[in-house]
Design a protein that fits this description.
single chain; mainly alpha; Ferritin
Length: 167
Amino acid sequence: MENTKTLEVLKTAILLEKRGKAFYEKMAEQTESPEARKIFTTMAEEEKAHVEFLSVQFANYVKEGKFSKPDYHNGETEDVSSEILNPQLIKEISAASFEAAAISAAMDFETRAVELYSKRSAEADDVNEKEMYRWLAEWESGHHKILYDLNEALKESIWYDNQFWPF
Protein backbone atom coordinates (compact mmCIF):
# COMPACT_ATOMS: atom_id res chain seq x y z
CA MET A 1 0.00 0.00 0.00
CA GLU A 2 2.75 2.49 0.94
CA ASN A 3 4.59 1.63 -2.30
CA THR A 4 1.48 2.54 -4.31
CA LYS A 5 0.97 5.78 -2.37
CA THR A 6 4.62 6.75 -2.85
CA LEU A 7 4.45 6.16 -6.60
CA GLU A 8 1.16 8.05 -6.86
CA VAL A 9 2.63 11.06 -5.08
CA LEU A 10 5.67 10.98 -7.37
CA LYS A 11 3.46 10.76 -10.47
CA THR A 12 1.31 13.63 -9.20
CA ALA A 13 4.41 15.71 -8.47
CA ILE A 14 5.87 15.08 -11.94
CA LEU A 15 2.55 15.93 -13.58
CA LEU A 16 2.20 19.10 -11.51
CA GLU A 17 5.70 20.21 -12.52
CA LYS A 18 5.07 19.40 -16.20
CA ARG A 19 1.86 21.43 -16.14
CA GLY A 20 3.70 24.32 -14.50
CA LYS A 21 6.43 24.14 -17.14
CA ALA A 22 3.86 24.13 -19.96
CA PHE A 23 2.02 27.05 -18.37
CA TYR A 24 5.15 29.16 -17.97
CA GLU A 25 6.31 28.35 -21.51
CA LYS A 26 2.95 29.41 -22.94
CA MET A 27 2.99 32.64 -20.95
CA ALA A 28 6.54 33.40 -22.15
CA GLU A 29 5.41 32.81 -25.71
CA GLN A 30 2.32 35.01 -25.44
CA THR A 31 3.56 38.00 -23.47
CA GLU A 32 4.61 41.16 -25.22
CA SER A 33 6.71 42.26 -22.25
CA PRO A 34 10.41 41.31 -22.52
CA GLU A 35 10.74 41.49 -18.73
CA ALA A 36 7.74 39.21 -18.16
CA ARG A 37 9.11 36.83 -20.80
CA LYS A 38 12.31 36.54 -18.75
CA ILE A 39 10.32 35.66 -15.63
CA PHE A 40 8.17 33.06 -17.34
CA THR A 41 11.17 31.54 -19.13
CA THR A 42 13.13 31.30 -15.88
CA MET A 43 10.19 29.68 -14.10
CA ALA A 44 9.71 27.20 -16.98
CA GLU A 45 13.39 26.23 -16.75
CA GLU A 46 13.09 25.66 -13.01
CA GLU A 47 9.97 23.53 -13.46
CA LYS A 48 11.88 21.51 -16.08
CA ALA A 49 14.65 20.94 -13.53
CA HIS A 50 12.02 19.74 -11.04
CA VAL A 51 10.60 17.28 -13.60
CA GLU A 52 14.06 15.89 -14.27
CA PHE A 53 14.88 15.69 -10.57
CA LEU A 54 11.61 13.89 -9.75
CA SER A 55 11.93 11.58 -12.76
CA VAL A 56 15.32 10.38 -11.53
CA GLN A 57 13.83 9.71 -8.11
CA PHE A 58 10.86 7.90 -9.69
CA ALA A 59 13.13 5.64 -11.73
CA ASN A 60 15.29 4.91 -8.70
CA TYR A 61 12.27 4.13 -6.54
CA VAL A 62 10.82 1.75 -9.14
CA LYS A 63 14.17 0.00 -9.57
CA GLU A 64 15.49 0.01 -5.99
CA GLY A 65 12.35 0.51 -3.89
CA LYS A 66 13.87 3.55 -2.21
CA PHE A 67 14.85 7.14 -2.81
CA SER A 68 18.41 8.05 -3.63
CA LYS A 69 20.25 10.73 -1.72
CA PRO A 70 19.97 13.56 -4.23
CA ASP A 71 22.51 16.25 -4.92
CA TYR A 72 20.49 19.30 -3.93
CA HIS A 73 22.91 21.65 -5.62
CA ASN A 74 22.42 19.99 -8.99
CA GLY A 75 20.06 22.21 -10.96
CA GLU A 76 19.68 24.66 -8.09
CA THR A 77 19.39 28.19 -9.35
CA GLU A 78 20.63 31.32 -7.71
CA ASP A 79 18.22 33.81 -6.20
CA VAL A 80 16.66 35.62 -9.12
CA SER A 81 14.17 37.73 -7.17
CA SER A 82 16.30 40.87 -7.41
CA GLU A 83 16.49 40.45 -11.18
CA ILE A 84 12.77 39.75 -11.50
CA LEU A 85 11.40 42.49 -9.28
CA ASN A 86 12.62 45.53 -11.14
CA PRO A 87 11.02 48.85 -12.04
CA GLN A 88 11.07 48.08 -15.77
CA LEU A 89 8.89 45.02 -15.24
CA ILE A 90 6.37 46.95 -13.14
CA LYS A 91 6.30 49.61 -15.85
CA GLU A 92 5.68 47.04 -18.61
CA ILE A 93 2.92 45.16 -16.82
CA SER A 94 -0.38 46.64 -15.77
CA ALA A 95 -2.02 45.10 -12.70
CA ALA A 96 -5.05 44.32 -14.84
CA SER A 97 -3.13 42.81 -17.77
CA PHE A 98 -2.79 39.34 -19.23
CA GLU A 99 0.60 38.97 -17.54
CA ALA A 100 -0.79 39.98 -14.15
CA ALA A 101 -3.55 37.38 -14.50
CA ALA A 102 -0.93 34.78 -15.42
CA ILE A 103 1.13 35.71 -12.36
CA SER A 104 -1.93 35.27 -10.17
CA ALA A 105 -2.67 31.85 -11.72
CA ALA A 106 0.98 30.86 -11.32
CA MET A 107 0.77 31.64 -7.60
CA ASP A 108 -1.97 29.00 -7.38
CA PHE A 109 0.26 26.43 -9.14
CA GLU A 110 3.06 27.13 -6.71
CA THR A 111 0.72 26.95 -3.70
CA ARG A 112 -0.51 23.50 -4.78
CA ALA A 113 3.07 22.30 -5.19
CA VAL A 114 4.07 23.57 -1.74
CA GLU A 115 1.05 21.88 -0.18
CA LEU A 116 1.71 18.55 -1.93
CA TYR A 117 5.40 18.52 -1.06
CA SER A 118 4.94 19.67 2.52
CA LYS A 119 2.26 17.06 3.18
CA ARG A 120 4.32 14.25 1.70
CA SER A 121 7.42 15.35 3.58
CA ALA A 122 5.47 15.10 6.83
CA GLU A 123 4.06 11.64 5.94
CA ALA A 124 7.17 10.01 4.46
CA ASP A 125 9.11 7.39 6.40
CA ASP A 126 12.09 7.26 4.04
CA VAL A 127 14.62 9.87 5.19
CA ASN A 128 15.68 10.73 1.62
CA GLU A 129 12.07 11.06 0.49
CA LYS A 130 11.23 13.27 3.46
CA GLU A 131 14.23 15.51 2.78
CA MET A 132 13.55 15.66 -0.96
CA TYR A 133 9.96 16.84 -0.50
CA ARG A 134 10.98 19.32 2.19
CA TRP A 135 13.57 20.77 -0.18
CA LEU A 136 11.10 20.93 -3.07
CA ALA A 137 8.52 22.65 -0.84
CA GLU A 138 11.10 25.29 0.05
CA TRP A 139 12.03 25.76 -3.60
CA GLU A 140 8.39 26.17 -4.62
CA SER A 141 7.84 28.52 -1.68
CA GLY A 142 10.60 30.66 -3.17
CA HIS A 143 8.77 30.71 -6.49
CA HIS A 144 5.56 31.66 -4.72
CA LYS A 145 7.28 34.49 -2.84
CA ILE A 146 8.70 35.95 -6.06
CA LEU A 147 5.28 35.84 -7.70
CA TYR A 148 3.55 37.21 -4.59
CA ASP A 149 5.99 40.12 -4.31
CA LEU A 150 5.53 40.87 -7.99
CA ASN A 151 1.74 40.74 -7.64
CA GLU A 152 1.88 43.11 -4.66
CA ALA A 153 4.10 45.55 -6.55
CA LEU A 154 1.68 45.51 -9.49
CA LYS A 155 -1.29 46.14 -7.18
CA GLU A 156 0.47 49.02 -5.48
CA SER A 157 1.38 50.50 -8.85
CA ILE A 158 -2.20 50.43 -10.09
CA TRP A 159 -3.50 51.79 -6.81
CA TYR A 160 -1.06 54.65 -7.04
CA ASP A 161 -1.79 55.34 -10.71
CA ASN A 162 -5.55 55.36 -10.06
CA GLN A 163 -5.32 57.30 -6.79
CA PHE A 164 -6.94 54.53 -4.72
CA TRP A 165 -5.14 55.73 -1.60
CA PRO A 166 -7.45 57.04 1.12
CA PHE A 167 -5.19 59.96 2.02
